[in-house]
Amino acid sequence: MKHLLKLQDLSKEEITSILNMADQLKYEKKHGIEHKRLAGKSLGMIFQKSSTRTRVSFEVGMYELGGQALFLSSNDLQIGRGEPVEDTARVLSRYLDGIMIRTYKQEEVEKLAEYGSIPIINGLTDYCHPCQVLADLMTIREYKGAIKGNKLTYIGDGNNMANSLIVGGIKMGMKVSVACPKGYEPDADIMKWAAENGEFECTEDILKAAKDADVLYTDVWASMGQEAEAAQRKEIFVKYQINDEVMAVAKKDAMVQHCLPAHRGEEITAKVFEEHADEIFDEAENRLHVQKAVLVKCMG
Ligand code: CP
Ligand code: NVA
Fold this sequence. Notes:
binds phosphoric acid mono(formamide)ester; alpha/beta; five-stranded parallel β-sheet
């Protein structure tokens, strides 16, 4: 695997292989088995947006793999003063062994890969969040024993998380349903692809979407970069919440996933969040193991 730009670029076999490697690395960490598969390698981490999980999991992940990670805030890089991404890519390719980037436009990530000569990993754009969904799939497999055949329901904004969950879920043989307000649907091309390649539904009806779900997923109503719309979105999304009513129509053993950060009382009630906290924090932990697997696959 050269890059991780978006899940569309990966086959089902490649995704499974990343998840298997993540399970292996989790096992090695838990049992104190040394796994310095990237000794002497350097990862640059460009952040144009905030991050807790992505930054820490990549940084600790590189350390545990025997390499190092450099935190490169766009406030400090020349990229923040207008140096073109094409030039940044070619310069950093001469120092580093890989780049993780979190930014706004997906095109910027694709351009970095086009102009650079080292692996590029997408740590979130407005369009998608592939690393998160790999951790979600790993967690679903841990809890359910398998991914295929489970029904995944996403409730809320048709954002980067929704886009990647649809692609990852359908590729791995899940049934995927999305409930979102009119005008806030996921990417149209992704929805078309999903309908052609699996069982997919997008509706405004939350209870219809959540019926018999095995996995319920939600994310914030206003993503990074949408702060100015937050108040308006609170009104539009008010019903799009995982709560007891939604849990009641899902399967009895349904699990709940949230990429975090969570806004209790908005996209999820505090009660449901706490009742499913183990699943949600296992999901957050799995970011570390999956990130390490992606790093080994791309840079090993
Ligand atoms: N879920 C996720 O990507 O979290 P951060 O924004 O904290 O990295
Ligand atoms: N949709 C959220 C995900 C954060 C991990 C955002 O882009 O802010």
